[in-house]
Design a protein that fits this description.
globular, alpha/beta, 49% helix
Length: 279
């Protein structure tokens, strides 16, 4: 694992949302962890922007159908993967570089009986341990910002997709240049390795071999979503500590507040991209 990837893995090991935190909240609200269904986890395990609706958009974009094999890049605790498996009838292989996330995902999958449908694997997005043309579709949500070499990761996704398959994902983008000091802040506090602009993403996807389908600027929608997430993180910080996960502390919360402000000012933002591997 590269040093930068190790930094990201360590950052996620201290994330406010973790499997112990989810299980603590679930047990407190249900009274026990007996007979938990996947839908019971939905209020707690969707650690991405716009929740279940975001899952549905990506599923539609890659044309998921029952029996498909789907790759989830940087799958985290596999909240979206469980939704895809249950709501779209697909099998999901997730890759993530955080042992904390992979182990937590396996625990949550087993809790709801999806351990045979969802397969979290500890691996780098820049060196996927799969055969060529193995998957019927691929997804990712707000994760490529953490990848040191995005072009290499895009090439790996292209390689493992079958001809005609689609990759749909969301990620942070940079609308106006940030100073070196600001980028260093994002790197140290949020483990953001680099940011593309939307045109740069389109260019890199085309250079990889993808045929572009759609690039949608979602910055205006993210402004409100992220403001609410900041409030959530502020509330979760103490809860995370009680669940055995260290507090992110004031520095993280201040940096996240800057991120929210930068999105609302359209300095940085978000994009939803869908690209297809030609037949």
């Amino acid at each position: 694992m590269e040093k930068t990837e190790q930094t990201v893995a360590e950052w996620y090991a201290n994330h406010p949302i973790s499997a112990p935190h989810i299980l603590t909240k679930l047990k407190a609200n249900r009274g026990s962890l007996d007979d938990v269904a996947p839908v019971d986890l939905y209020p707690y395990d969707q650690d991405h922007y716009d929740g279940l609706e975001a899952n549905a958009r990506l599923a539609n974009n890659v044309r998921m159908k029952p029996g498909d094999g789907i790759l989830d890049v940087c799958s985290g605790l596999c909240g979206p993967a469980r939704w895809y498996a249950v709501e779209r009838g697909v099998d999901v292989t997730g890759v993530d570089i955080s042992t904390n996330r992979v182990d937590g995902a396996k625990e949550l999958n087993a809790l709801v009986g999806l351990q045979d449908r969802i397969h979290p694997i500890l691996a780098s997005a820049m060196a996927l341990p799969f055969d060529n043309a193995q998957f019927d579709g691929a997804v990712s949500q707000e994760s490529f910002l953490h990848i040191p070499d995005k072009s290499k990761a895009l090439a790996e996704v292209f390689r493992v997709l079958r001809p005609g398959a689609r990759f749909s994902f969301t990620d942070w983008v940079m609308h106006t240049p940030l100073s070196d000091d600001e980028l260093a802040q994002y790197r140290s506090q949020i483990a953001c390795q680099s940011l593309f602009s939307i045109p740069e993403y389109e260019s890199h996807l085309k250079e990889t071999g993808f045929a572009m389908i759609n690039a949608q600027d979602v910055t205006h929608v993210w402004g409100d979503i992220l403001a609410k997430r900041l409030q959530m993180y502020q509330a979760l910080d103490a809860e995370a500590e009680r669940a055995g996960n260290p507090s992110k502390g004031d520095d993280f919360l201040k940096m996240y507040a800057k991120f929210v402000s930068d999105v609302q000012k359209r300095r940085v933002g978000g994009v939803r991209l869908t690209a297809e591997k030609p037949d």
